[in-house]
Amino acid sequence: MTPALPDGDPAPDDGTLPTWVASGAADRRFGVYMHVPFCTVRCGYCDFNTYTASELGGGASQSAYATTAVSEIEMAGRLMDAAGLPRREVSTVFVGGGTPTLLPARDLATMLAAVRSTWGLAEDVEVTTEANPDSVTPESLKVLADAGFTRVSFGMQSAVPSVLATLERTHDPRRIPDVVRWARDLGLDVSLDLIYGTPGETLDDWRTSVESALATGVDHVSAYALVVEQGTKMAAQVRRGQLTLPNEDDQAAKYELADDLLTEAGLGWYEVSNWARTVDGVQRACRHNLAYWRGDDWWGVGPGAHSYLGSDVPGTRGLRWWNVKHPVRYANRLGQGLSPSAGQETLDDASAQLERVMLGVRLREGFATADLSPRARTAVAQHVADGLVDGRAAIAGRVVLTRRGRLLADTVVRDLTD
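^ Heme chaperone HemW, sequence as received from the core. Prediction below:
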């Protein structure tokens, strides 16, 4: 089961964009997300919009998918031009999934080439693809590097075979150092994604995973708490008592251990779940994800992908829309010359301010207290007293979480936005 699309207003069949999205666009960076919905197997905890190859055919099949995605990219260029948006070079590209590297590397290169020909790529563009460790070879990575990819994010999840088995991950953890070396030898930046809180995972298991990731020498690590969504296989296993989820104290201990180990190794946190090393004075953060958290513009390509364009016009501060979820319907709509959009919403002033707080609070840089209501500014003082918000930053006019605050980020957001 994949998550339902959000509620919203109907999106126009022709994809027409309101002209107010062009207001202030020249001052906003622009990125592209491309969703590749294929996986070899469906992991029991996953509720992403993914499918195995045997589930799909026609324009949604793996063999035809790149051509279908390119048709949306070309349509996006036309729609943005018609709305009066300035042609901006793309500053970041992120290919996610699914497992994008189940597609032939040359297909991913074709999709990136379409982005380049439609908008152009900034000279310092960051181009990332997600990958499973068992879905790449030195040869496929070279094709990606030659095509302009600059970064690979490997789904390591754990270094412990029993934990990987519970997650139903298929790769051999002993392969991680090899794939990291292959990518770095080609000049690609590498990130490793980890998951903590898997049923049965001990604190020593988690320490092994973090230390194994650090031993590869990567400059970026993401560590996410396992969230078991309703409708997934793992949720059913938990409900039947076959698996037992860890408690909040266990989750907190694992987060603190990761933060300690990563910080000691020279990787500083820049977002609640992300750490990066500073090299030559520049932190190797994922710039594409930072673009989401900072409110930049982006176009999402693929089934279920979301897009966002901001605005400086009062009352219409942004437009968000999302594509139809199923890949077959997505391909069919594009084949008929229709927009794949399923719904959309316009952000008013209050909604935009709420999002600035919800996203900004997750960042190490935080956000300006001026973005808060008078009542919420009063609440900041209480959070400083409770050790959730950094006092010095608050005096300087910014809300920045302490480590304890990171563990209770949802509580802080709730108090500052109610």
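The domain at 9-291 is CATH 3.20.20.70 (TIM Barrel).
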